[in-house]
Amino acid sequence: MTYAMWILLTASLVGLSCGIIGALLILRKMAMMADAISHSVLLGIVVAYLITRELSGIHMLIGAVIAGLLTAVLVQWFHARGVQQDASIGVVFTTMFAIGVVLIATQVGNAHLDTKHALMGEITFIPWDTIAVPGLGEVPRATLTLSIVLLLVIAVIALFYKEWKITSFDPALAASLGIPVVLMHYLFMSMVSLTTVAAFDAVGAIMVVAMLITPAASAYLWTDRLSVMIGLSAMFGVISAITGYYIAVWLDTSISGSMAFATGLVFLFSFLCSPRHGLASRLRYRPNMSEQKL
C-alpha cells in the first residue's frame, strides 16, 4: 500500500470510530464532553510518560483512558453539587489540559511530545511507525490500533444497542426498566476516552473533536432513526477524511486541519440541503403554511 493510502486509511478509521461514538454523544446532549476528554487525555499521556519515560506502549493508553474517565467523574461530581454542566465541563477540562501543558513545558524536555503535536497530531509520520502483523506484513502502528478500537466500538454498540437507545432518549424510563444508567454512562465515557486516545497521537485534539461532533451533527439533520444516524455519521466521517486530505495536498497545508475543515463543509451542505431539517426544506415549507392560512 502506498504512503498516501496508509494516511487515508488511518484517517478514515478515525472518521468511522468517531462518527459512531459521536452519534450517541449528540443524542445525549454531551457534545462538549468530546472537547473536554480530547484535551484532558493529554494529562494522562504526559503522566504515563513521566512514570515510564517511554513514548509508546499500553501504559500511554491506560494513562489517557484514566484521565478521560477522571474528567467524566469530576464533571458529574461538580454537576451533582449544583454547578451547571457546561461550567463543570469548562472548568475540569481547561484545568487538566493546562496541567498537561505545564508538565510538558517543565518536565518532558526534548522528548517528541509538545503542544503542537497534541493539537495537530503527526498523521504524516504514521506510515513510518510500523509493526509486523502475521499475514499482513508491516502495518502502521496507529492504523492497527484504530482498527482494533473500531471493532471494539462496533461490538459494544451492537451488544447494548437497545440499552444505548433507551438511555440516550429517556434515562428515567431506562432506570425504571432496571437498566443500570450510571454504569452505561461510564461505559460510554470509557469508549469515548478509548476512541479519543487511539486517534489522539495520529491526528491531534482538533481533528478528534471535529470528527466526534460535526459528522454526527450533520447526520442528525438527515434522519430521525438512530441506526441510520450512526451509519450516516460514520460515512460523513470517512468523506471528511478523504476530502480533507486532498484539500491539504491542493493547498499544501496541515492534513489534520484540512480534515477538520472538511467536516465543516459536510455540515454546511447538510444544513442547506437536508430534505428533513435543512434550510432549503424549511423555505419550501413556509409558503405552503402561508397558503393554508389564506
Automatic annotation (TrEMBL):
**A single BP term in Gene Ontology:** response to zinc ion
The record's principal subcellular location, in a coarse class, is: membrane
Which superkingdom heads the taxonomic lineage of this protein's source?
Bacteria
Coiled-coil intervals = none
Cite the Pfam families for this sequence: ABC-3
Q: Where in the cell is it found?
A: Cell membrane
Where does the chain cross the membrane? 6-27, 34-52, 58-78, 90-109, 142-161, 173-192, 198-221, 228-248, 254-274
InterPro entries linked: ABC_BtuC-like, ABC_TroCD
List GO terms (cellular component aspect).
ATP-binding cassette (ABC) transporter complex
Q: Keywords on this record?
A: Cell membrane, Membrane, Transmembrane, Transmembrane helix, Transport
Q: How does it sit in the membrane?
A: Multi-pass membrane protein
The family annotation for this protein states:
Belongs to the ABC-3 integral membrane protein family.
This one is known as: ABC-3 protein
Organismal lineage: Bacteria, Bacillati, Bacillota, Bacilli, Bacillales
